[in-house]
Design brief:
This protein has 4 helices and no strands. By secondary structure, it is mainly α. The radius of gyration is 14 Å and the shape is elongated.
């Protein structure tokens, strides 16, 4: 029987896999799609709010410099 911890670990692994993909995509790019802020950036940043706040540790995030720099930029955009 799968425990809560097993489910949490599997979800964390999935999130890290997606962040790895984003980090690669953002290499040399300011935005996810094109040359300016798009709905894709807003949507993905919103999805990452909980993992960045509660799940992912600072060491992991530091190693994902492209996506972390992009996420910080997204969270500091003017309203």
């Amino acid at each position: 029987m799968e425990t809560f911890q097993d489910e949490f670990n599997a979800a964390t692994s999935d999130i890290k896999s997606q962040i790895n993909t984003l980090d690669t995509r953002l290499n040399g790019q300011d935005w996810l799609v094109g040359e300016r802020l798009t709905l894709a950036d807003l949507y993905v940043a919103a999805l990452l709010t909980t993992p960045y706040s509660l799940t992912l540790d600072a060491g992991y995030l530091k190693a994902k410099g492209n996506v972390t720099q992009w996420y910080v930029k997204m969270t500091t955009l003017p309203s």
